[in-house]
Each structure stands twice: as C-alpha cells, then as structure tokens.
Amino acid sequence: MLSRTADHLFWMARYMERAENTARILDVTYQLTLLPRNGEDVENMWSGMLKVMELQDAFKARHSSFKTDAVLDFMIFDRDNPGSIYRCLRAARENAHAVRGTLTSEMWETTNGTWLKMRDFSPAKMLEAGPGDFFEWVKYRSHMSRGVTIGTMLQDEALRFIRLGTFLERADNTARILEVKYLNLLPGSDEEMQSADYYQWSALLRSVSAFEVYRRVYRDQINPLRVAELLILRADMPRSLARCMKEVYSNLARVANSRSAETERLAGELEAHLHFGRIEGIFEGGMRRYLENFRDRIFDLGCRISDDFLIPASA
After folding, report:
1. What Cα–Cα distance (Å) separates residue 153 from each residue in 49, 103, 104, 148, 235?
2. Which residue from 7, 158, 159, 165 could staple onto 13, CB 3.0 to 4.6 Å apart?
3. Cα distance from N-terminal residue to C-terminal residue, the chain
4. Which residues lie below 8 Å from residue 33, measured CB to CB, with a gap of 6+?
C-alpha cells in the first residue's frame, strides 16, 4: 500500500476516534460540574481537563476564565482549536475524501454525513437541547463509522491501518480520561482516591460505556482500585488500555515491513506489560506517573509508526 494512502486511512480513523473521546471527556467533566460545588472548583475541573488535553495554554490565550460555556465552545466549535470536535470531524472527512476510492461507498457516506451534520450545529442549538444530547450524537456517529468499517471493508491492509489508528488513539484518550479523574478531581495523594465519591466514579464509568460492564464483572460497590483495573488491565473491556494495545500489536504484526521490527517489539512489550500487570503494583508506583508514562510510550509508538509506514522512504 502507498504510504500516502496508509497515512490518510490512519489519520481518518484517529480523528474520528478523537472526536468521540473528546465528547466522552467533556461529558464526564460536565456531569461532574453539575454536582454541588462552588464556582472555583468547577473552573479548576475545566482547567485540569484542558491541561490533560494539552490545550490549557491555547485556551488561556483567548479566554480569561475557565467558565463552562467558554470551555464547551472552545472544545466543540472552535475552528482554530485543532483539538475541537469540529476540527476533528472535518479532518476525518478530509482524509476520507483523499482516499475515497479505497473506502466503500457506505463508509464514505457515513463520514461525509457526519461532517455535514456537524456544520449545522451551533452553540445555541447545542445548549437548547443540552450538551449531553450532543455528546451522545458524536458517540453514535463514531459507533456507526466503526460498524460500517468492519461490516463493509475488505480485510486487507487498508482495514489494518484504520484499526491501528483507532486503537492507538483510543489508548491515548482512555489514559487521558483516567488522568482527568485522578489529577483533576482528586488533587491530593493517591491514598485520597480510596474515599472518592460514588457519583464521580460512576460518571467516569459511564463516560467510557463501562458502568454495566463493571457491575457484571465485579458485582459490588464501585471501588477506585477495581475501576482502574477494569480500564487499564482487563483485555475483555473494549476501551481498556490492555485491549487497545492488544489490537495495536495485532494489527502492527499484520502490516509489518522491513523497517518496523523495533516498533512491533515495543508495542508487544507494552501489550505484555498490561497483560501480566497487577493493579496493586500500578497504584504503589503512583497512578498519575503510570498514566503519564503510558501516554509517552503511546506518543513514541505513533511517531515510530509514522516513520515506518506513513512517511515515504527517501530514495
């Protein structure tokens, strides 16, 4: 497959997944701001979320305070913010258009239709219906895109690069969602996490579609240690770090070339670490430190994949 084609497929998938996960992060933070708390705490929440998303400085350059409406507008509709849902869906559509001949007609129509609908939204319309309905729409369109991809695309390299982009992006964003919780809502030591409020943890689980899964797996009261275990180490949980890395390694192995041996090894090493890891050891070493290190390794893998597959080798 041509490097340029692989690049467009990879980033098409990443941007669609990024839009969904941005909606998830915004949704859980917004839900938590509705719990009884003062204005300063709400602003600290949004500030922490933007910090984890690496967009705090960009926001501060344009806004004087971390008000809910300003953050939602910045993260959803801002055309100059490369991390906004608007920009992500536009970028997904642009990458899909560049390789339209590689996609099935159903896949193109789904991606294009999502972008056209996004252009019709406005802050006023979103607030009238409620941010929650908009976040559900973004998630629904992302689900539809994945379903059409799996249901209509040939099982070839094109699909592998799409899946590779999807799960690499999901791994990064699941780590960010967890980091928002641990860094932003519980600013003290790791031990303070043990007394976290039930509603905060249930909101986190719902944000990654894991509330019912948690009840089925653990069958008791929500516990921070088990929430972390579910979202980090359970490979049967679709959005967990372990599941994402299992998929990244599997898809890398199927598109391996003469340049990618070290990238494949590093992905396999990270997948094995999650497969054989224990949540108690992660907590002992510090959850925040673990999540930051994981995101660093995901970033490195993304750069290596770009070098190995997506950038044409020099003649």
Report:
1. 36, 7, 6, 8, 25
2. 165
3. 17
4. 42, 45, 46, 68
Name which of 72, 88, 91, 90 is nearest 25 in CA terms.
72
187, pLDDT greater than 50? no
Cβ atoms within 10 A of the Cβ of 275, count?
14
Neighbouring CB atoms inside 10 A of 162's CB total 26
Separate counts of helices (H) and strands (E) for the chain: 16, 0
Rounded CA-CA distance 138/19 in Å is: 7
Tokens of 201: 């943890």
pTM of the predicted model, to two decimals? 0.90
Query: Which structure tokens are listed for 315?
Result: 């003649």
Quick one: pLDDT band at residue 313, thresholds 50, 70, 90? very low
